[in-house]
């Protein structure tokens, strides 16, 4: 398994319960594909550098995880389907 860092931005109108549900759903997807979440870090609500989907701010979340390379496409598919996630980035950590 490889180490990855997933950074994603959640829609600013999402409340605390909705934010926890998004994080839990992503964690379940990672676990279902044989991976594990190492650390979850919330940066809180911050202003975006430029508007994304007419939003000027969003909830920044960072996850450190271990996952097989073949499962990344399934994780990306689920992130694209999540309506609350307005932007994401998966980077391989060394």
Summarize this entry quickly.
The chain is α+β, with helices and mostly antiparallel strands. It is built from two helices and four strands; from the N terminus they run βαββαβ. It has a four-stranded antiparallel sheet, with helices on one face.
| Radius of gyration (Å) | 13 Å
| Strands side by side in the biggest sheet | 2-3-1-4
Class inferred from helices and paired strands: alpha+beta
> Quick one: CATH class?
Alpha Beta
CATH architecture: 2-Layer Sandwich
Write up what this structure looks like.
With 94 residues, the protein is α+β, with helices and mostly antiparallel strands. The protein has one domain (2-92): Alpha-Beta Plaits, CATH 3.30.70. The protein is built from 2 helices and 4 strands, in the order βαββαβ. A 4-stranded antiparallel beta sheet has the order 2-3-1-4, with helices on one face. Strand 2 and strand 3 (55-67) form a beta hairpin. The longest helix has 17 residues, at 16-32. It is globular, with a radius of gyration of 13 Å. The two termini are 12 Å apart. 17% of the residues are buried. The model has no long low-confidence stretch (mean pLDDT 93).
